[in-house]
Amino acid sequence: MSSDALAVPVVGAAGRPWVETLHEWVTTVDHKRLGVMYMVYSLIFLVIGGIEATIMRIQLMRPHNDFVSPQVFNRMFTMHGTTMIFFVAMPVLFGFANYLVPLMIGARDMAFPRLNAFSFWLTAFGGFLLYFSFVGGSGLYGAGSAPDVGWWAYAPLTSRAFSPGHSTDYWTIALLVSGFGSIGTAINIIATILSMRCPGMKLGRMPLLAWMYLVMSGMVILAISPLTAAQIMLLVDRYLGGHFFDTQAGGSATLWMHFFWIFGHPEVYVLVIPAFAFVSEIIPVFSRKPIFGYPVMVGATICIGFVSLSVWAHHMFTIGMNSYANSFFALTTMAIGVPTGIKIFNWLGTMWGGKIQFKTPMLFCIGFLFQFLIAGLTGIMLSAAPFNWQLSGSYFVVAHFHYVIVGGILFALFAAFYYWYPKITGRMLNESLGKLHFWLFLIGFHMTFDVMHIPGILGMPRRIYTYEPSRGWDTLNLIVTIGTFIQGIAVLVFVANLIFSYFKGPRAGNDPWDAWTLEWSVSSPPPDYNFASIPTVASRRPLWDRKHLEDPDSRYE
Amino acid sequence: MEEKRKPEWGVVLSRAAGVLVIVAGILFAAGLCAASPHPDNPVPSIFEPHSTPADSIVQLSRFVLSITALIFLVVATLLTYVVVKFRNKPGDARHEPAQVYGSTQIELAWTVIPILIVVVLFLATARVIHAIQDAPKPASAVEVTAIGHQFWWEFRYPALGVVTANELHVPVSDPANPAPTFLRLLSADTDHSFWVPQLAGKTDLISNHPNEMWIDPYRTGLFLGQCAQYCGTQHAKMLLRVSVDRPEDFDAWVRAQKQTANQDEKEVAGRHVFESTACVNCHAVGGTAANGRFGPDLTHLMSRSTIAAGAADNTAENLRLWIQKPDAIKPGSLMPAMQLGDSDLDALVRYLQTLR
User: Tell me, what's the pLDDT at B1?
Assistant: First the structure.
């Protein structure tokens, strides 16, 4: 058992040399510590990716601005996209999975603790490798440079003719390495959920979070594998004289697009399903009601998992597929709106008739619901292929997917941080700072991303480092940039809250939210071994049963 | 003390939030006003179509927008209602609300209704996809081959024997007497995308993967667009101008473009500079030894109103700057700085200005 090998975690305990603490963290195989490391790691990259976004927004603040050169701008959007997807969103979601899944299913650790540590360090190494390209990107040829091929790196721009030097190789290998890390963690989560549940926890009694991570992990395996294969093919092209994507030698640029998006679209759901998971845990607790339609939520998640594997080419409506292919992908893309809509209705059904408490986690969940609704509706617009021919590749699309990723996923993540921080650290986050964070971020978000739709409609393509003054895009871009700064301040408030509350926050106790899942039955932070004795559950809400002996859930299941 | 300070914090916060909301609202409204198209500024809005493909897209998008707006109103109203109505009232915290686990009828309702909406949306979409993509090519169509280069457009009219760059000329298409333009899209290097929002949706130019699109503008004038698929360093300044001409103007333009280059004996010095330096490796001038194809054809350079794919106006000063220091106009473009002395440079610019 892993806990035998570890000292009791007394973080920052007086009298212990810091090297020892560091050594403990570096060599740990404890799921909670790995979870925390994933979270801290991705928060660092969140700040880096945010700085890159800010640099782009300053450049686009007015037409013909020369804050950065086109070369630097192109590196910024490539690094921003790659960082935010692969080194912020994926790791932080895996971090929460690591921390929460064993605790919520009544297990003492993940199924494969060493694979868990290995996967984390692979992911971490991938991130460092990507950023090392700033130093080593041009190899022997001169100063360093980061990749500048865009985060989806379409062929043949990635061929050696158009991307000399090594910056593209750093991108390729960073994604290859962190991809192996992701696959390792996904296998681990699946194994843990399928074989480590405590007695009484049938599949149908698992917290929705576990269900959703199960689906998400299955999708990670299916989605990351083609990406990994494509990266290897790209390396073969670049160094072994292959011609997979070399159009001058009969290769196919569209082959890369298919490989990338058969990863890329399921990836969106890989990111958003954990966000659904957080919301599905938090909304019931702050509405004081169980989740509405549990089996339907599970079914809708599985349905999304399957359908999302058949929608990838909606990223490629402009590449000249025939009308049948375009119609097919328009249909599948619209169809995925059905299970997603069902989820939104079920969350509303959960809140309906409840007694909603507007604590910070719940505020972020309500923000999530509102923004995810709009993101879904702009998604419907984009799924209508002819409309997409106008909107794709424009700032409308940029606004749309930031609505999903920031307005949806990041809001849900903030909710998760406020909700589980007391469990992880034993301290409550400051509620006033939390509300300040929420309102500032909400205002900044809407200023940036509501307005950003409009330049796209007015013909502004994405990935341009500057634009002409006569197009009617200037004021809109200025507003977008101001909103970015407000969001940046909000994130700083959040980080300050994380640090301040770690030292000064009030003690949380085991169960500060009066919640119902197993992680709240143990101390905060939980002991190394999680559960002194493995619990037995009789319903979906084991703590409800303990608190309401007169009317337990188990009576109705 | 603690008791007193807390509510003050709350008041300050909510006031700050209120002020910020108002400021954001004002800025948003200001942005919308500023974005409304100015009559003399050609804003390439997708909602001001002047060609059948762009127009049928606008019709479809109005339909999609009204359905999504309806869904938004219904769901956002529900959300607002739930948040207002079911908030926890102070003093009521002791009792848990009724524990409801779900309802099959309600689940069925909110599954079936979205499915019906999807069916309707799909049928409307498929109809427009078919109408645009599978439109037959009439015999009267003008055929153009558009070739994307890093970072400029080459336009060839195979049937008319015309080659030009960056500024596409097409005849206006009278609905009674249609003269659509069919574009065959190729790429010489990386991926590009042809996007003139008021004429049609975008279609990518992909190496080794020829594509087709068509436009039938029914209004004369200048329509702006630009490359919409990231193609490398200067993707931003790969601008696109489409001039829709009256039929007689278009015919006159074609006649002028078919002539070989104007040879002005006075500018023989400049011509000598052009033909004895690296210019000829990349640029062609019809009827001379210069037949390079990496860069735009310069035979009728002065018939175009911009240079560097729309990055600068076609003036003598800009031409001079472009030859001497291309990075000043378009950093990272593939045009090299020509390292000429002042007298050669002046002669060369004078020669280029004779290429009408």
Answer: 36
